[in-house]
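Moderator note: this is an archived Q&A kept for reference. The question asked for a predicted structure of one protein chain; the sequence and the answer are reproduced below.
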Amino acid sequence: MRSTGVVLVMLLVASFPAFAQGGAPGQTAPPGQPGTLPPPPNPNNPQRMPARPTRPGELPPKGTAVIKGQVTSSGTGTAVRRAQVRAMSMEGRGGGVTSTDNNGLFEIKDLPAGRYTVTAMKGGFAQASFGARRPGDPGTPIDLADGQTADKVSFVLSRGGVISGVIVDDGGEPVAGTQVAAMRYQWMSGSRRLVPAFSDGSNDRTDDRGGFRLYGLPPGEYFLQAANRNNSFVGPGMSNTEAEAFAPTFYPGTSNIAEATRITVKGGQEVGGANFALIVARMARIRGRALTSRGEPAAGMMAMLAPSDPFGGPMMMNMSNSVIGADGNFEFANVAPGRYNINLRPSGGMQNPNAEFAVMPLTVSNDDIDNVIITTHVGATVRGSVITDDGQPPPFRADQVQVFAQTMEPTAMFVQPGQNRMQDDYSFEMTGLFDRRRFSASVGPQGLGSTWFLKSVIYDGQDVTDSGIEFTPGRAYDGVQITFTQKTTDLSGAVTDERGKPVLDATVVVFPANRERWAYLSRYIRTARPDTNGRFSIKNMPPGEDYLIIAVQNLESGQGTDPEFLARAREEAKSFSLAEAETKVVDLKLSPLVP
């Protein structure tokens, strides 16, 4: 029986920005024109300096650019006061945040030159990204020069949709404390998956009358799932004797997503009467014993039962926890049919390099499962060093380097990445690793930019930057060499339509001609939106590759990594190549390809 280590963290729900419309308050901007901005200064003017990412250890620089505008309510055109507006640098140089005044006006000052995304949000409204045309779309970047003011970055916020209803049991009685989530299909990890939608009241629990109200939902189609886990925890020395329990249930009362009913929500619409009963079903009980690698009871460790596919539904709804007793025994009760992983981890976390842990896959039907034996292991250990490609000692401090070992399985994307302990001599050590991992690395505090980027990861004479390393528990992997470089690529260009006019509401997709590079989390696939001048910018693409590039409209967020879309796009795409440290301009005509 295969047993490896894993630590799961909470599923992060995706944010779905709503429609954002630019132009004057109460008006709708023409298609592809989310707002009128003053033209940027002449690029030959010395005042227009290239944006320099914040160096390690620096605070975000104080600049002279300004973003201002107004936030109004869709339909009424009235000002939205106390809405939060946030500008974030796309080059890791900070940004700014402010709130609108009584007239819905806002102003974000002291911004350094660069490209920014701007969002607006307020409770009860659907979040908006400047320039986005539908929920989930990225916004239009704003390119600012030193001293420039973008003074018409205006938003029209739509009231978020609402779904409300009552959850009852099989006898028609209300069930309090039931977790209810609105779920929608979204592109993730190269395919469409059902994920919890963001809302101001997402993952609400029912009140004493069984009522729930999910609000702040962007327009779209949703499935409702309800789960009641009030009686699932089994502590040491306890035994749950229930034979039946509430199974996770989709509206209008089914455990099968194929039989569930979609609920369509428009902006500001309240859909009431979504009432349904939880299904009472024969649930499984899992009993077992956990042993350490020394054959001793794994007393005091935490056992977690989690779905093997975190996208199969609201993860927290289907998770169960159990504390392992002094004799090593554990139990999970009220387990719905499905595929799971049993994860064992120390109750105090993974800080101890000698900590043991395990994960074992398990398929559950309606029948109880007894005598499950899990043996924990000490994970693999990696030791290595960080260098620069110029052969000089790194100019950055060792404590500014972050190295992670990320899982390469899409369904395990919420597994905690292995983290390094960097020493003053730029050597590092990671413990508790398992399965195939790929290294990622950065220089500088999180959220701040850097002029140094990952170039390569070498182990045993092989470049494992993209392939990763298959880790065997208990084994040591010495001599991993991580190289940073400042020789980065810079790809840019303009997107125009058949009449030569700039196109703003498009998505630029860059991908490799080699299909083998279309893997999950590929470094060779990138997407970008044209800014308010109709130009896109993509930095730090890996050099030495034959690339394809295309600009399309109506591409859903995340669809740019879908292999089926890439296969169709390659017939229309434009080819180019990138050399090390090359700056290249590739202008594009909008493709008629329908995603």
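Archived answer notes: The helical segments are 563-569.
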